[in-house]
Amino acid sequence: MAAWLLAAGIASAQTTGATLQGTVFDEQGAVLPGASVTIENVETGALRAIVTDSRGRYRAAALPPGRYRMRIELSSFSIYVREGLTLTIGQEATVDATLKLASVQESVTITAASPLVETTNSSIGTTISRSQLDALPLAGRNFTTLAQTAPGVTGVGGGGVNAAGQLNRNNSFLIDGASNDDNVVASTRGGFSLEAVREYVVMANQFAAEYGQASGVIVNVVTRSGTNNVQGRGFVLHRDDSLDAQDPFSKAQGSGKAPFNQQRFGSFLGGPVVRDRMHYFGSYEGLRQRETSVITSPLVPVDDREVPHDTNGHQYFIKSDTQLTPGHSLSVRYRLDGDKEIGSNIGGFDTRERGQDVTRRDQDVVGNHTAIVSARTLNELRFQFSRRNIYWDTVRYSPLGTPAINKPSGNFGKANNMPQGRREHRLQFIDNLSYSRGSHDVKTGFDISLIQVKSYFFNNVDGTFQFRTDAPFNSADLSTYPFQFTQNVGDPNLQRRNDLYSGFVQDTWRLRPNLTFNVGLRYDTETAFKEAAGVGDDRNNLAPRLGVVWDPFRDGKTAVRGGYGKYYDQAFLNITGNIMLARRFVGVTILNPGYPDPRSRGSEAPPSKPSTTIASDEVQTPNTTQVSLGIKRELVAGLAISADAVHGRGRDLFNGPDINYPDPVTGIRPNADFLRIQQYQTNGNSWYNALLLGVERRSGRGPQFGISYTLSKQVRDVEDFGFQAADMSNRGAEKARANNDRRHQLVANMTWALPAGFQIGSLLQARSGLPWNVTTGTDNNRDTITTTDRPDLLNPNGDPRDRSTYSASFNGRAGNLPRNFGIASDFWVLDARLSRFFKLPHQRIEAFVEAFNLLNRANLGLPTGNLTSASFGQPRALATGATPRQVELGLRFDF
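RESULT FIELD:
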C-alpha cells in the first residue's frame, strides 16, 4: 500500500470535506503531546498523518466523506486503534482517545460509530447518507426530496422546499463545492443521477460565512468517487397505469385512468486506475416516459381531455480523483443532463392549445484542487464552466399569431409567454485558504461567478383576451364579450449578464475544550440591476455570523447551540429581463374589446396607451436575519434528539406594484402617458418563528429512522417578485399568513433490515393546510386589475368556502377581508418500499417494489378563490406535487 502521508492540522473545507478532531489523554487524564495520529480512508487507502500539539490536540481537515480507521501511537503507551468511523460532508467529528501504558496492553482496538452530536458546529442541518438514498422510496429518483426531512425545512410540493419564512427561490444548491443554481429563474440547474450522489447535507439555519447568496436552504452535495475495489451496479425500474390509482378529478368527470408507462434504467462503475492514488467513477441514467395529461376544464368535451405527454431523458456523469503528490490532490468531473418533453403544460384548466415541447440540455465541468501548503495551512481552488440550453416550442399546438384566451374555467390559445428559449453560461472561480493556530481555525476565501444569458421571449406578442364568463361567445350578447385585451409589440431577443462577487472570513475559536465560537463575516455584491436598468449596485451587503456551541457535560454527547446571522440573496435575471423587455416592447391594453378583433368595437374602446416595467432608483439586496437557540443530545449510542427555537426577519424583499394606478374616483393616472407602470421594489418584509424538534437513530441493529416536527408561523406583506397589493396605496393591509405557511409539519423516514434478506423503507409527510386567498374577480377598487381585489367580510365566523360569508357589492375602494383568509386541506402522504436481497458469491441482486402515496389519499389543491367562478371554494386539482397512488417495480444488480 502506498502511504501518502499528509501532515496537517487545519481548518475544514466544509463544502466538500469533513473534519476529524480530538484530544489524546493518558489514563490519569493528562494530555499527551507528540502522539502520532494516522487516519486511513479504508475505501481508497489514502492516509493522513498528524502529530498532537502541546495541548494533546489533533485536527485532520478536508477529509473526503467516507469510512475511516484511526491509529494513535506514542512511545511507552499501547497502540490505540479506532475503527468504524464514517465521516460525512461538512461534519466536524470529535473523537477523544485515552492511551494505556504498554505494560498493561500492547494494543487497544475500539469499534464504534462516529458521534451524532457535533460540539463545535452551531449550524442546524441534516445529512442524507448514501444508505438512505438506496433504501428510501424516492418519487422520480429526485434525491432532493429528502431535504424536507431536516427540521425547519418545509416541503412546498414537487420536491421544492423552503425554510425560515423564505421562498423556494431563496435556496442555493452546491455540488462538489460549485454552484448548481439557475440564475435566471432561481432554481436548480439540471439534475444528477441518483447513482452519482454520495451524500448531501441540508442546512436550514445558522450556516457559516463560507455559505451565501441564499437566505433559505443550502443543499450541499458531494458526488461519488471510485475506490480501491471495482464496484458497479445496473438497474431498471418500471411503472405503468395498471398499478396506479386514478386521479379523483378525472374520475369524477367521467374520464378513464390516464395511460402511463415509464422505464428508468442505468448503471455505474467505479474503481482504481492506480491503487491508493488514482480512481475513476462514471454513471448513466436513462428515462423513457409515456403518459397522458388530463384536462379537467368543463369547457372541453370529455373525449378531448386526454393528451399525450412523453419524455425521453439521459444523464451522464464521469469523475476522476488523483493524488498528484503527497500534498496535492485533484478531482475533475463532467456532467451532461438532457431531455425532450412533448406536450408539456397541458392539464387541469390548461387545454391542449396551451401545450409546449420542451428541450433541455445541461452540461458542466468542475475541477477541485486541494493543496496542503504547510502543517497548518490548506488551500482549495475550484473552477466551474457550465452551460444550460432550454427551449419551449408551441408550433405543434398553437401557431404563432394565436392569442391567449383566459376564461374562469378554462385557458385556451397559445400561452402568452411562449415561445421562449435561453442559453446560460456560468464561469466560476473559488479559492479558500484555511489556517490553524492554537485554538483558532481560520478560513477565508472568495467566489466569482460570471454569468451570461442569451434568450428570446415572446412576451404576449400575440395578445391575451380575458373573459368573465364561461359562456360561448355570442356577438349579439355583450355579456359574452371579453372585458380586456392586452398585447405587446417589440423585439423578443435579450442579452443579459450578472457578475457575482463574494468574500468571507470565519474563525472557529475553541475558547475552552467544551466551548466553541463560530465567528464570521461575509460580503456579497452583483451587477444584475446595473447591467439591466442602470441602477447602482447594492454595495453594503456585509453579513456577520456568530455561533456558540457549549458541551456542558464534556462528554461529546450534548451541544447547547445558538447563533445570529444575516444572509443575503441574489437577484435572478427574470426580474431584470422583464425590465429590459419593457424597453423593447410597447404594451397595449384595450378595455371592453371586440372579439376576435379586439379593435372592432371602435369608439367603445378607450385610446390605447403603453404599459411598462421599471426598477426602483434604489434596489437593495433581499436579506434575512436569523436568531436561534437550541440543544442536541445523544441519549444512547446512535440515538439523538434535538430542539431549536428559530426567529427569522426578512427585509428588502422583491415586489412589483403598479405605481401609476388610477384614482378610484376620477380614474385618472398620475402619468397620463402610460397605463400600468410596474416598478420592481425591494421593500417587502417577512416574519418567521418556529420550534424545531428532531429525533434520529443511525446505528446499531433494528430500525434506522429520523423524525422531525416543525411548529412555525410565516407572515409576509409581499410574496414573489411580481406581487401586487389589492390596494396599491395600503400595502400594509397585505400583511398576513404567507402563501407557503404550514403551521404544523411532521416528516419521518425509516429503514429496517429484516431477516431472510428483506428490507423496508418508508417516508411519511404530514403537513397542515396552506392559506388561500379570496378575490371578487372584478375590479372593485378601479385600479384596472381584477385578480387582486378582495371582498368585504360579512361573517368573521363564516365558512371561507361559502359565498354568503362575503360581499362584493361595492366600488371605488378595497374590501376589508384579510389576505389569505381561508385554510386549505391538510396534506398527508406515506411512501413505502419493500426489497428482497439475493446474495451471490461476488454479486448481489435486489428486487423491490415502491408505492408512492401508499394509502391513496386525495391531497387536494387550493380551493378556487375567485367569487365569480362556478367552482368557488372547491379545489380544481390535487395539490402541487401530489399524485394518486403510484407503484414502481425495480431490480438492481450490484457487483
